[in-house]
């Protein structure tokens, strides 16, 4: 097949493709800048030049055209990148939805809220203690920018920064009648390119309902950046299971529930092995085997020991981490044995 390279470039504006890969861009004169996805970029070093359809990173010297960007971002060959960008159907975005639908202002508001909550957490002993009890250590809560809402810091902060309180209310950060929706909750943000695109609040004590509250924005895959493009992925249900996995350095994400619509699974496309670690209860087991059936032979179920509720629960038990890695080994092996039997698909 012969590709019309100029046509492909024309039909795939570089700024749209870069944004589609989770990089938040802001305008700077004639070009756009953002945090480079190819190195640990603390300051925006990636410059995108729409007029020449090219990019260059002043941090790691990565550069080229839209095809080079896709090759690098998704670890594709030249031909595969052309296929991905060519006109046969819409570009299957690795990151469909949430991040792209948010305006730059929306992301600024969410990132500001995330910062306020993170600072608040670091000076709120009862919130830190809650996280410690759930086995989430300080380096992890810093890396994931976890937060805590004291119920009154956000509004004055947004006002000072001249960010829209109306939009903050629409997105579900503030109540229309005043007050913060996340008040008294541990806040787990979803970060893309170091910007916050969504957050989930968890009450400190189980006697308050609802236990979890999200924003009024589309629910993302929590931890998408940790798993995107990885060959081996752990998938779990809840935010705290996810945080336990992060503590153990796993490429892990959370679906934030057991509902797995097909379009939400697109991020698993390239994974060669998907280890499913859902809750150890009826609905969890049912959802796990449903997901495993859909993914086919590359899926493995990690079965938690009896009496252990979920991954976070296991993580809090003495020897939990070691037990988990033994279970993973078993899950990997179990699949191989099954694979030697005649396939019945
Ligand atoms: Zn770079």
Explain the layout of strands and helices.
Elements: H1 5-11, H2 14-20, E1 26-28, E2 31-34, E3 46-49, E4 54-57, E5 63-65, H3 66-74, H4 78-85, H5 98-101, H6 104-122, H7 125-133, H8 138-143, E6 147-148, H9 154-160, H10 165-170, E7 185-192, E8 195-203, E9 212-214, H11 224-227, E10 232-236, H12 239-247, E11 252-254, E12 273-277, H13 282-295, E13 299-301, H14 311-316, H15 320-340
Parallel strand pairs: 10-11, 10-12, 12-13
Antiparallel strand pairs: 1-2, 2-3, 3-4, 4-5, 6-7, 7-8, 8-9
The structure holds zinc ion (ZN).
Structural class by sheet pairing and helices: alpha+beta
CA(first)-CA(last) distance: 32 Å
Order of helices and strands: HHEEEEEHHHHHHEHHEEEHEHEEHEHH
Show unreliable segments. Answer: 88-96, 339-345
Number of helices: 15
Q: Remind me, CATH topology of the largest domain?
A: Dna Topoisomerase Vi A Subunit, Chain: A, domain 2
The chain-level mean pLDDT equals 88
Radius of gyration: 21 Å
Total separate domains? 3
The 3D shape can be described as: globular
Beta content comes to 15-25%
Structural summary, described in words:
The protein is of the alpha+beta class and 345 residues long. Helices cover 39% and strands 16% of the residues. The protein has helices at 5-11, 14-20, 66-74, 78-85, 98-101, 104-122, 125-133, 138-143, 154-160, 165-170, 224-227, 239-247, 282-295, 311-316, 320-340, and strands spanning 26-28, 31-34, 46-49, 54-57, 63-65, 147-148, 185-192, 195-203, 212-214, 232-236, 252-254, 273-277, 299-301. Strands 1-2-3-4-5 form a five-stranded antiparallel sheet. A four-stranded antiparallel sheet has the order 6-7-8-9, covered by helices on one side. Strands 11-10-12-13 form a four-stranded parallel sheet, sandwiched between helices. Helix 3 (66-74) packs across helix 4 (78-85). The protein starts with a helix and ends in a 5-residue tail after the last helix. Mean pLDDT is 88; it is low at 88-96 and 339-345. The structure holds zinc ion. The site of zinc ion has 9 residues, from loops. Zinc ion (ZN) is lined by residues 36, 38-39, 41, 45, 57, 59-60, 62.
